[in-house]
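Protocol step 4 of 6: structure prediction from sequence.
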Amino acid sequence: GALADYIAKQDTTIEMYFLAFPEYLSIYKGKHKLQTLNMLNPLDMIKVAQSDVVVTNYGALTLVYYAKLTSLKFVDVWHGLPMLKNQTPKIMDYLNYYTEIWLSSEAMKKFYKTKYRLRSKLIVTGYGRTDKLFNGDYDRDIICEKYGLPKGKKILLIAPTWKHNNPNRNELPFGLSQERFITELNSFAEQTDCCIVFRAHMLSNDLGAAGKNIKALSSHDYPDTEEIISVADLLVTDWSSIAYDFMATKRPIIFIDAQTPFVGDELKNRCMPSNRFGPIIGDVSEFKKVAKRYLSKPELYSRENTEDISRIEKIAYGGTLDGKATKRYFDNLIELFNG
């Protein structure tokens, strides 16, 4: 999305398409201006085969034979920095057939090379989807009106990840039942005069009717995560990569010390708890205490967690968190067109 928006402003001669399976075309319908191509339509897939460059961020296993057997140039930008829930080398092997992989930092480049064992050309560009967050390009009033959020209140965003291979994992924070969770949140919102946004993962169940102080904005109905991040004053998450997108805002983040999304060998191989930064909260009463402090005095967050924030930002972004990653995407794309 960030790249498509940038291209539209820079070069109207570049023809762009949004390729996805039907269910995702439905989710994003009316939420972008691109022509669409259906993965299940043979004529559309012929159009894909005639492309100059294909840029993917997830699910590209479905295009692996295009990457293997054609001269199409493939680029990957991924859909979230894999610093809490990394993938396995076997899953990521398809990227070895790619022309380039655009990464957020030198540390991530090293990680992709040593952990995922990738042989493709790895290029450090930064992470394009965070540019508008870093630059403050979103209009808070417009976004709040779009999502039905109060303009004059602090907004607390809760965004947990999905179950992954741990079917018994409670996706709601602090292991609470849905009824108790909603009761606790409504009580906190009334005490602090804030609005709480609950954002369920695309592979999770939505919260449903949540009370007057809680707005449920699921990924299925509201796929533009960055817009929601842009108006949030505080993020609460567990193992979701949304934390590294939110890092671009410099606003407070609270991690829930929740059950991991993996069990067995995957727990050892895929979870990286050391890449959490800032407070890690284990119960709802402590959460309320810390969240209240950071909502009223957000400057305390950076002051109290300077070392952790600096350490993780260096891994995640290096020096690329500068609002110019999408320009570097575009420059690389032009080189691919001309190469």
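Step 5 (inspection) to follow. The radius of gyration is 20 Å.
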